[in-house]
Amino acid sequence: MNDQNKNKTSQRPEETPKKAVGAASAVKSSSGWKRLFAKRWVSPAIFMAAAAIIVTLMWIYQGTDPSEKTSLPSNPAGVSQEGEPSKTVEGNTDPDPEDIAVGGEMMEWPVANIMALQVDTPFYDTNATAAEKEAALIQVDTTFMPHMGIDLVDPNGQSFDVMAAMSGKVTHVQKHPTNGSIIEISHGNGLVTVYQSLDNVQVELGTEVKQGTVIAKAGRNELEKDLGVHLHFEARLNGENINPSQYIQK
């Protein structure tokens, strides 16, 4: 009996250190993880890694090579000179010029002599080259957005007459605090032309105008001070922006 108790007593010290070592390892491991997660950069790093994995899986699922992605969507929402969101025609597939003709009348440039002027900022066309797209980006605060109109300027900085691009009815006249005066003319069939950065407005709300009628002078605005005197010209079909130059009567 005494020999058995002696053997049991001799075995106890051997078991105790094993438990102690295991507990110490667990505490050390737990403490190490806590110290790791306490660092400020760990959580953002884990989030970014998880996001990268998710995006990669989405690209793989869609069968698209991530290297083929561009910095701008194929059909981006742009901004008019007013800085408000505008729409582009779905897929940027422009309608046939005859589809926007009103009473057989085709659109013309809203100036007397387009050759005497120059385009400072063109319309953002998703079918254009990379260089042309870059030239049609404008900065709004800290963000670059597609330009939804055409800015015309005189090389000598002179003002010029602004004319109705088509016959129609003046449906909007406004003195904007940053964009100068604005005129909108409705031509029927969902087509509207927009004229911004104006001076010396010569029409009123409800005025019926003929194509080529002088409606204002090109002026200045606070939004695009660097352009000086210029005209911002837009065309919208059923509320969606279209490239005016595609429909100008040659």
Specify the biggest β-sheet. Answer: 12 strands, mixed
Strand content: 25-35%
Helix content: 25-40%
CATH topology of the largest domain: the name is Glucose Permease (Domain IIA)
Euclidean distance between termini CA atoms: 118 Å
CATH superfamily of the largest domain: Glucose Permease (Domain IIA)
CATH architecture call of the largest domain: Distorted Sandwich
Uncertain segments are 61-79, 82-86, 88-93
Radius of gyration: 33 Å
Strand tally: 14
Count of distinct structural domains: 2
Number of helices: 3
Characterize the structure shown.
With 250 residues, the chain is α+β, with helices and mostly antiparallel strands. It folds into 2 domains: 65 residues, no CATH class; 169 residues, Glucose Permease (Domain IIA) (Distorted Sandwich). It has 3 helices and 14 strands. Strands 1, 2, 3, 6, 7, 8, 9, 10, 11, 12, 13 and 14 form a 12-stranded mixed sheet that branches. A two-stranded antiparallel sheet has the order 4-5. The longest helix is centred in the N-terminal third of the chain and has 37 residues. The radius of gyration is 33 Å and the shape is globular. The relative contact order is 0.14. About 12% of the residues have low confidence.
Fold blueprint:
Elements: H1 2-38, H2 42-62, E1 78-79, E2 85-88, E3 118-121, H3 130-135, E4 137-140, E5 143-146, E6 150-153, E7 161-163, E8 168-176, E9 180-188, E10 191-199, E11 208-209, E12 214-218, E13 230-237, E14 240-242
Parallel strand pairs: 2-14
Antiparallel strand pairs: 1-2, 3-6, 4-5, 6-13, 7-12, 8-9, 8-11, 9-10, 10-12, 10-13, 13-14
